Amino acid sequence: MAERDRRHVVVPNPPAYEPFTLSSGGGGGDPVLFSGDRRAHGRLLRRELEDALPPENDEPIDRGTYVTFVSFPGFELALESLDPQGSGAQPELISVGRDSTNEGVAQVATVYIPDGKREYFFNRLDAYVESLETKSLKNAKLVEGIREIRRATLRELWTDPYELYPTDGQAHWWEVWLRRRDGGELARFTNFTEVLGLSTSPHYLGFAERTVVLVRATLAQLSEAFESLDDIAELRRPHDVASLLPSLPATEQIDWVRELEGRVRPAGPDAPSVCILDTGVHRTHPLLVNSLHASDEHVADPAWLLRAVLGHGTEMAGLALYGDLQAAVLSEHDVALQHRLESVKILPDQGSNSRDIYGAITARSIDRPEIEAPGRRRVFMLAVTAPRPKRPSGADPTQLERYEAGKPTSWSATIDALAFGRAIDDTDAKLTYLDRDEPPTPRLFVISAGNIVDLDATDNHLDRSDLEQVEDPAQAWNALAVGAYTERDDMSGAHPAFSGYTPIAPRGELSPVSRTSLLFDKSKWPFKPDVVAEGGNVASSPDGSSVDTPENLAVLTTRLQEPGGGYFTTTRDTSAATAQVASIAADVQANYPGLRPETIRALVVHSAEWTPAMLAQFNQDEAKTARSMLLRRYGMGVPSLNRALRSATDALTLVAEARIQPYEREGNTAKGKVRQMNLHELPWPTEQLQDLGNTDVRLRVTLSYFVEPNPSDRGWTGRYRYPSHGLRFATKRPEDSVENFRKRINKRARDAGAKPASLDTEVGWWFGSNQQQSAGSLHTDIWTGPAIDLASKGAIAVYPVAGWWKDRPRYDQSDRGVEYSLVVSIEAPSVEVDLWTPVSQQIETPVVITS
Questions:
Q1: Do 65 and 53 meet the contact criterion of CB atoms below 8 Å apart?
Q2: Residues 78, 145 contacting (CB under 8 angstroms)
Q3: Are 450 and 470 in contact (CB under 8 A)?
Q4: In what order do the strands lie in the sheet with 502-503?
Q5: Is 59 exposed, middle or buried (0-12, 13-18, 19+ CB in 10 A)?
Q6: Has residue 247 got a pLDDT over 50?
Q7: What are residue 486's DSSP bridge partners?
Q8: Quick check: 325 and 559 in contact, CB under 8 A?
Q9: Could you give the CA distance from residue 299 to residue 797 in angstroms, rounded to a whole number?
Q10: What's the whole-model pTM score?
C-alpha cells in the first residue's frame, strides 16, 4: 500500500435534497389476541378504575391520582393511548417498568390522571363494551392489553429492576425524577425535604420534561412525599463513581525526562485541547507544563484545591498529550505536539463526592473551560465511570443484567445532551438546566467503557467480558466509548517476582478487564465500545490461582510528582485506552479545524481496524448476526492516527458534512412524518476503478450524527423513544441508475402506484442490515467486491427514520435541521493505482485546510 501522505478530500458541494417517504412503511403491529369474555373484561376494568380513583370531591381541583395499568404477561400496553397529547391538563404517562410473575413478564405503566380528566378512560372502556353490539370493536388495542388497573404505589414509579428496590426500612439515597408541569415542582419537593430534615444532593439537573435530584430518605418518608405531592415521575437508584486506579510505583528517570523535554515542541495557544475530567493534573510536570496553562486548570467545586493530589488525572494527561509516551521517550526525533491540555477536577481529593447528580457535575465542569476559552476546539475526556449494582441475594443475574443493560441514566443522558449541543443554564446556584432554546453547539466526548475489577484466573476472559456490560455513562449514544485491547504479552522484562506468570490475553486480543455491550438489547441500545486501544494485560500466577498486573504489561505515562518521587509511572485498562483515543481525536481536530465534532468522531472510528486475533474471531462465524455481536465486543477495532489524518493514492477518503430536516407535519399538533432525503453524488474515481476490472477493492462508509436524548423511562418506543431522530444511509447498486436508486429508496420519487424493479440482495457487505438497522447515532459498514462494480456506486442516500421528535410536535426541532457527517473510503491494497488524484481534481473549489 502507498504511503499515507495525502489529505482527505473534503467534499464542498452539498447533497441534493428531495421530499421523502420511506419505501416500505411499518405495519400496525400484531393484533391483541384476546380469548376471554370481552364484556366481563371491560366491566371489570371499569370497576377497578373506579376503585383506584378517590372521590373527586375529596381532592382539590388541581390535584390528581397515580393509577397503574398492568399488561397480560408477555404482552405490551398501548402506551400512546395511555398518554393523550392535547392542550391543558391531560392524563400523563409517568413511567413504564416490568413485573416478573410465574406466568411471565408483564409491562407496568403508571399514569397521572388529573381530576376533571377521569372520563378519558371511562369513556373508552364504556365505548369498548358498547361496541361489542356492533361490527366495529372500539379501543380494543387499549383495553384488551390491560389485565389489571390499580391505585399506584411508590414502587410502581421505580424504573430500575424491582430486585434492587430498597425494602429494608433504612434510609437510602434515591434518584428522584420530578415531572415538569408548572415550574414549581422543584421548590415543592425541596420544601418538603427541608420540613422532614432530609439530605438532598448539592446540585439538581434539568431536562426538557424532568428535573432530577438525589434525596436520602426511608421508604416511608418518600411514600409521604408521593402522597403529598403530584410531582414525582420516576425513582431510580443513584450511580456511584468507581474507585480510581491507585498510582503504581515508578522508576526515577529524570535524565530521560530532560532528554525528551528538549525534543518536545508544544502546540501553540490556539491549538485544540484534550480537556481531562478527572482528579486534576500536576501542571508543573516537566513533560506537561508547556502544554497546560495555569488558566486552563479548573475545579468543579470552588472549595477544592486547584492542584492535583491524586495521581489518576496526571497519568491520563501523559497519554492524552503524547498518545504513546513510551514511543516518544524512545524516539530520537523531535516530538511536535499538535494539541494542548485542559484539566477539570471533578472528584474530591479525599473520600468521594457527597451524593450528587453526576450529570450536573459533568455539565458544570465542561462549563468552566468553555467560559475561560470559548473559541477553543476541544475533546472532553472522561475516564471515570460508575459500576453496575451488586446483585441482590437470590436474584437471577442474567435477567437482572439484561434488563439493566444499555438503559440510559441521568448521567449518560447528560453526556448525550451536551454532545448534541445543549446549552448549560446555571442561573440557579443548584439547578443545572440543559437549555434547548439556544442553537446547539455540539461537543465531542471520549469516555472509557469501564473495567472488570474482580478478575478470576480460571475465567475464559472473552466470555467474562461478554457478560460484563459497559459502565455508566459509556452507554451514551453520542459519546465515543473506548474499550481496551493489548499487544503486550511478553514477560521477558518482568520483575523477578513475576517469574512463571502467564499473560491472560494473547497479543491483539481484548484486554481481560474490558467491558462490552453483548447484553444490550440490540433493537434499543447502540454498539459499545466504538473502538478499543492499548490498555495493557493481566498475568496469571504459575498455579493459576490468582492474577496480577506486572508493570511490563502496562502503559508508560507521566506520574504525579511527590517529594523524592519519580516522573514516570505505568497505568492500564480502559482509562489508558481512552486517553490515547482522545489524543488521536484532538490531533484530527488540529489537522482539520473546520470539521464538526460529529466528523471527528466518524474519522476516528473510520480509521479503526481489527487485529488478526480479532479477525480470527469474526471468521469463526461469517453470519452477519454473529459479526454484529462481535462488534459489541471490539467495536470497529483499533484506531490509527495515520489513517484518521491521511489518505494515500490507493486509499482515498472522502468527507462530506451536511444538514437534513428529518420530519414534517401538517399543523402544530399533528403527528409527524419523515420529510427529506439527501442524495450525495460524490466525486468518484470511476475510470480508474473500471480499469481495475474484477480486482477486489474495499468500500467503507461511516455515518455519524448526534441525537437529543429523551431520558425518562416510559417504554422506549413511539413518542417515548430515546433518540430525537435517526438517520440511515443506502448506497447505489452497480446495476442501478441514479434515478432508479432514488425510486428504490424514496417512495415519493415514484409515479403513483409504480414499483421499482426488484434486485437480488446485494452481497459483499460485512454487516449488512443488521448494523444499519441497529440503534445508535453512528453507523458504519464495509463492502468488498470487484472494482468494476464499485465504479458505479458513487451515489449515497441519507434519510431519516423514527425518533421522538416525529411524534411530539411541541418539542420537534426539525425546522432547524440536524447535522451529520459522511465518511467514505475506497482502498485498493493489492494493486498500484492512483485513486486520490482524479478525485481531488474533480472538486470544483478546493477546500484549503491548514495543518
A1: yes
A2: yes
A3: yes
A4: 502-503, 539-540, 547-548
A5: middle
A6: no
A7: none
A8: no
A9: 45
A10: 0.91
